[in-house]
Design goal:
The structure holds 2 protein chains of 2 kinds. By secondary structure, chain A is mostly helical. Helices cover 73% and strands 3% of the residues of chain A. Chain A is built from 13 helices and 2 strands, in the order αββαααααααααααα. Chain B has 2 domains: 169 residues, D-Maltodextrin-Binding Protein, domain 2 (3-Layer(aba) Sandwich); 217 residues, 3-Layer(aba) Sandwich (D-Maltodextrin-Binding Protein, domain 2). Classes of the chains: A mainly alpha, B alpha/beta. Chains A and B meet through α1, β2, α5 and α12 of A and α1, α3, α11, α17 and α18 of B. Chain B: Keywords: Signal. Chain B: It comes from Streptomyces chrestomyceticus JCM 4735.
């Protein structure tokens, strides 16, 4: 067929065996990688994709947890009703406010801490581990401690306030004070985590840049401002996106902050986030359809955030 | 060329290893299911049935030794209990498991707040226990039996405990405020109505020791009053009528009087600050079903010993209690029915009361010495068996509805709380509660 003679005479059986082997080898080379990554995709399909699609399907129906298999088609009703749902808008607003209150100081503090840790200092390993400790603490444990700290009658924060002559604050019941308290928990947990990410990126910055900057007479602050921050831009963007996604999904801290009160997020829903509202609709009020619609709305919000982020990233790249 | 050979060979080794592992696993499984049968045929040991019991919180069956006693009576049965701490996590899970027919325990507990919904929507998935062997309807308090029975007479749950309410009060604080401390005299102060209870509260407030309040929370007052009325959120035809219900109005007004009259310590029950207030003796009274006694003892600790006492409530009401149900999808239905019947029989309920202070829903148990003679040393040897049995007899026949829990929770955690803790007016609080309930009930 090829018009070429085989290099050496072989028995037909040997040729067939060799061909079979090489065919098997080619098939192996071609399909094995898919097999190796298959577990991930199978698990993703079962626990990621399927729930996502099923939630979307449920969002278009009237479904109750008392009878999850009885689905009654409702079209976009679950979505359109959110437009007129005061509790949804309240939760969206709370999520945004708590998100800003926690993300902005968190990232600024993380940047500062990373800069300090980037200096040569004694026991730097200790400080790095210490920074990661809050992140390693469980949400439940951390929040329970913060609930005690922010207690109205016996809280440490109010006691500190009283030592300087200020009145105690009823943290949970105030609209802003409750949001601030919840944000504090988030800031406490995630600052160190972000600081370590910044630190890793800082250590990748060539030292020559600092040396030449120092030779040019730049102060430490100027070095930070003109060398460190510009080099960290992609990292900062990354942490912004991750923190924003985290803030949109905020759930554990406000849930536990209300103690046993459940998912209402305070007497006036003053710290009910979208995550909490979703949980309340689905697992307290048992309306799976409505809860699914909220879940998909949150998903769409995250997509918008991702799009805005991509836009900013492109702007930054072209401006450089 | 080397790799072409080594590749498949290595893979063959891996495959062989995987096959061996798989075979071992399969073998393990097979062995598991084979052994009892094998033993059976040889007659060496009887076949063991494992019954699972799903509960929330602490039911106390294990602590009171009831499982051990049952296993001793039935050597062929092993009992395993799984517990989820909070009912708000347990209940949704129970509903999903019932709908899929998988993941269920052989016996499942149901809280009184959910029983109406379970009876109305899940009866088809639960076994009718009314004619189960060993179950006598006459043993149970009639309303408890009725709560788990649907219109066609199917009883889906057997009553475990109930929560007849008394009032726990601090003798030391009462004495300092110039009030009587003897439990009969205290009960007489407010006997007959919740208005009188609040009158006592006002007398207490006039001379109260600094930093103490008459009652822990306005929600506590609301719950106590609403729990002592027969019709609450639904009428007898099953219609939701909470907006115009006279008993809701009465309970709401009492709670508002307590909140706006500064009779409360502005706490929320079962939160950390509530526990701390117990430890610091910050309030003088709390409505008190039997299961609360243990809670008070734990949170008030040693310095609260002989300071607390128990007196009859102004009107008897019920707070809490559970049922045991047997899912149709269970693997060992008949054994599960027998276990549920045994666990809820009067003798076992009496034993549970002695060990765990869960008050029997089986009326037949009240005459047993374990109940009628019960005294609580922490509460000044109060004759709790007599007090709670008397309260239990006076509890009105309550009409429950499927969404009782939702309505109640929004009234207390949104409406009452806004007035008690955020200083809003009663009108604002009521409006917020109604809005919240409307949103929660709207599918």
């Amino acid at each position: 067929m090829h018009g070429r003679t085989p290099p050496s005479p072989e028995s037909p059986a040997a040729v067939r065996a060799r061909e079979r082997r090489s065919r098997r080898y080619r098939r192996d080379l071609r399909w094995s990688p898919y097999l190796y990554i298959a577990p991930f995709f199978l698990f993703f399909a079962a626990f990621g994709l399927f729930p996502l699609l099923y939630t979307g399907w449920a969002a278009l129906h009237r479904v109750e947890l008392t009878a999850p298999t009885d689905m009654e088609w409702a079209g976009l009703r679950n979505f359109t009703r959110l437009l007129g749902d005061d509790f949804f808008w309240n939760a969206l607003g709370n999520t945004f406010v708590i998100g800003v209150l926690s993300t902005v100081p968190q990232l600024l503090m993380a940047l500062g801490l990373a800069h300090l840790l980037n200096y040569r200092l004694r026991g730097s390993m200790f400080f790095r581990v210490a920074l990661l400790t809050p992140y390693a603490t469980s949400v439940a444990a951390a929040t329970l401690v913060f609930v005690l700290l922010f207690g109205r009658d016996y809280g440490l924060v109010n006691w500190l306030l009283s030592t300087v002559g200020a009145d105690g604050v009823d943290w949970e019941n105030g609209s802003w004070s409750a949001k601030l308290a919840v944000s504090t928990i988030v800031v406490w947990r995630w600052t160190g985590y972000n600081a370590l990410i910044y630190l890793a990126a800082m250590q990748a910055i060539p030292h020559d840049l600092y040396e030449s900057a120092a030779l040019d007479g730049a102060s430490r602050w100027q070095q930070f401002r003109y060398v460190t921050v510009p080099s960290l831009r992609p990292t900062i963007l990354f942490t912004c996106v991750v923190s924003t996604i985290g803030a949109t999904q905020l759930f554990g801290e406000p849930l536990l902050f209300s103690g046993s009160a459940g998912a209402s997020g305070g007497a006036d829903h003053q710290y009910q986030t979208l995550g909490l509202y979703l949980y309340e609709q689905g697992w307290v009020n048992l309306h799976l359809g409505r809860a699914s619609a909220i879940a998909w709305t949150m998903f769409l919000i995250l997509l918008v955030i991702a799009a805005v982020n991509a836009l900013i990233a492109r702007r930054l790249r072209t401006s450089q | 060329m080397r790799t072409t050979i080594r590749g498949p060979r290595r893979r063959a080794v891996a495959l062989a290893a995987a096959a061996a592992l798989g075979a071992a696993l399969l073998g393990g499984c097979a062995e598991d299911s084979d052994t009892p049968a094998a033993r059976d045929s040889s007659g060496a040991a009887a076949k063991k049935t494992t019954l699972t019991v799903g509960v929330f919180g602490v039911f106390g069956y294990k602590q009171a030794g009831l499982y051990d006693a049952y296993m001793k009576l039935h050597p062929d049965i092993t009992i395993k209990e799984t517990s989820i701490e909070r009912n708000e996590n347990y209940y949704p899970q129970l509903l999903t498991h019932l709908s899929t027919g998988s993941g269920l325990a052989d016996v499942q507990a149901v809280e009184v707040n959910n029983i109406a919904e379970v009876t109305a929507t899940q009866a088809g998935k639960l076994v009718d226990l009314s004619k189960a062997p060993g179950v006598r309807k006459a043993d149970f308090i009639p309303w408890k039996w009725a709560q788990a029975t649907n219109a066609s007479g199917k009883t889906v749950g057997l009553g475990t405990d109930i929560g007849p309410m008394a009032i726990c009060y601090r003798k030391d604080l009462f004495a300092k405020a110039g009030l009587p401390t003897d439990r009969d005299a205290v009960a007489k102060l407010w006997a007959g109505g919740w208005g009188k209870y609040l009158d006592v509260g006002e007398r207490f407030k006039d001379k109260a020791p600094a930093g103490t309040s008459f009652v822990d929370s306005a929600s506590g007052v609301y719950n106590a009053v609403i729990s002592s009325s027969a019709e609450r959120y639904y009428d007898r035809d099953g219609k939701l009528v909470y907006k115009d219900s006279p008993s809701v109005r009465q309970a709401w007004d009492a709670a508002m009087r307590a909140a706006t009259g500064k009779l409360t310590a502005r706490l929320q029950q079962f939160q950390k600050s509530w526990d701390q207030a117990y430890a610091n003796g910050r309030f003088a009274t709390v409505s008190c079903p039997p299961w609360m006694l243990g809670y008070i003892k734990e949170k008030s600790g040693d310095q609260g010993r002989d300071k607390w006492d128990v007196a009859a409530a102004p009107k008897p009401g019920n707070w809490g209690g559970s049922f045991l149900a047997v899912p149709e999808a269970g693997r060992h239905k008949s054994e599960a029915v027998k276990l549920a019947a045994w666990l809820t029989a009067p003798e076992q309920q009496a034993k549970l009361f002695t060990k765990q202070a869960s008050f029997p829903s089986a009326r037949a148990a009240y005459g047993l010495p374990a109940v009628s003679g019960a005294k609580h040393p922490y509460f000044g040897d109060a004759p709790i068996g007599k007090i709670f049995a008397a309260a239990a007899e006076g509890i009105p026949d309550q009409v429950l509805g499927p969404k009782d829990l939702t309505v109640n929770q929004n009234i207390t955690d949104v409406g009452v709380l806004q007035v008690d803790q955020q200083g809003k007016t009663p009108e604002q609080g009521w409006r917020a509660a109604v809005e919240s309930i409307d949103n929660a009930l709207d599918q």
